[in-house]
Design a protein that fits this description.
The chain is 67% helix and 0% strand. By secondary structure, it is mainly alpha-helical. The protein has a domain of 28 residues.
């Protein structure tokens, strides 16, 4: 039942497979190690989206005048003579 197993493989193939397995192990290791960075970035991105939405709602609610008279009063007054061309 038992037997001897043998496999003849060129040395460059053994080195290449060992290198590939090492690269794969390093990739998985780094991906797992950096998981908390990705989680924190995802949470901060969600917070930024929420805050930008809140700022947009506040701008819409507070920046728009509720009355035409108030809109006219809120317009900046032109500087004296700034709108007219200079007289020679």
């Amino acid at each position: 039942m038992g037997g001897t197993w043998s496999l003849t493989v060129p040395l460059f193939l053994v080195i290449f497979v060992a290198f590939a397995l090492g690269m794969l192990a390093g990739l998985v290791w780094e991906w797992l190690r950096e998981a908390h960075f990705r989680r924190e970035a995802r949470q901060r991105n969600a917070e930024v989206v929420r805050l930008e939405s809140e700022v947009g709602h506040l701008r819409d609610r507070h920046a728009a005048p509720r009355d035409e008279v108030l809109a006219i009063l809120d317009e900046p007054a032109p500087a004296k003579g700034a709108a007219l061309p200079a007289v020679r």
